[in-house]
Write a structure and sequence with these properties.
Blueprint (H helix, E strand, L loop, with lengths): L4 H6 L2 H21 L3 E6 L25 H20 L3 E6 L2 E2 L8 H10 L5 E3 L5 E3 L1 E2 H14 L5 E4 L4 E3 H11 L8 E3 L14 H7 L8 H14 L1 H17 L3
Parallel strand pairs: 1-2, 2-7, 3-6, 4-9
Antiparallel strand pairs: 5-8
Length: 253
């Protein structure tokens, strides 16, 4: 899937081709061959929540996507549901909150900040930094998907989250401090168009039905391990770094 909001705002077309047409191609292939299918989606299909709203997204929350990225993911979810009902596809869907951890592309928020600091570049923060994301470690996301694949009920949707709500400025300051920098050592940039305010996942159904629990519940410790991984694995992320920063520079970010 194409999954980076900034890229979708700059050029929506690859998101339509990959997330909508690509899902159609996959569904037709698994229908032809009778393959069990799991579709990994995002909490962004639900739009956003107010910063002071105590509610969280559930499997019953209406879809309200607000970006080219989230609208194409919402479209792909609907295709899966249609193929499941019409053709009897053996399929499940999961909608997950924001991931962090090793092997994440440097265009994403946390790896970009870490790798900029490694390069001696001041990190950049959108708007006022108040936007809230519900962070989950990649290993927890993967373990949840595995449980859904092996134990989930066909035709069902499961939300994956680890109660990791934090606003962007808090996360950035935690990264700076963990890397020995002043927590105010960053630059402000213009906010992203249509920037969603808050995401929050209620994973009660997943935990109740399948017995899943997140293992990485200490965000500060998970963040430290993630920083250590990027410091130790520059050869993995370095080839993509310059092209990524060139795209951001072209967008004034």
């Amino acid at each position: 899937a194409e999954s980076h909001n900034d890229n979708s705002i700059a050029d929506p077309e690859p998101f339509l081709r990959t997330n909508v047409e690509g899902t159609f191609r996959l569904l037709e292939a698994v229908r032809k061959h009778g393959v069990r299918y799991h579709h990994v989606s995002t909490d962004e299909v639900y739009g956003d929540l107010a910063l002071d709203d105590p509610a969280k997204f559930t499997e019953e929350t209406p879809y309200r996507p607000s970006s080219p990225y989230s609208s194409t993911k919402a479209s792909s979810d609907m295709l899966v549901r249609a193929w499941t009902r019409t053709y009897g596809l053996r399929a499940t869907i999961s909608n997950c909150s924001n991931n962090y951890g090793p092997y994440q592309h440097v265009e994403k928020f946390i790896p970009r900040q870490i790798t900029n600091i490694i390069d001696g570049v001041r990190p950049k923060l959108y708007g006022r930094g108040e936007n809230v994301r519900d962070w989950i470690h990649t290993e927890d996301h993967s373990s949840a998907v595995w449980d859904i694949l092996t134990k989930g009920r066909m035709g069902e949707t499961y939300l994956i989250g680890a109660n990791g709500e934090k606003n962007n400025i808090t996360v950035l300051r935690m990264i700076l401090e963990a890397m020995g920098r002043d927590p105010e050592d960053f630059d402000w940039v213009a906010d992203r168009p249509g920037h969603d305010r808050r995401y929050a996942i209620d994973s009660t159904k997943l935990q109740r039905e399948l017995g899943w629990r997140p293992a990485h519940t200490d965000f500060a410790e998970g963040l430290k391990q993630t920083i250590d991984w990027y410091v130790a694995n520059e050869s993995w992320w370095r080839p993509a770094k310059e092209a990524t920063e060139a795209r951001y520079r072209a967008q004034g970010q």
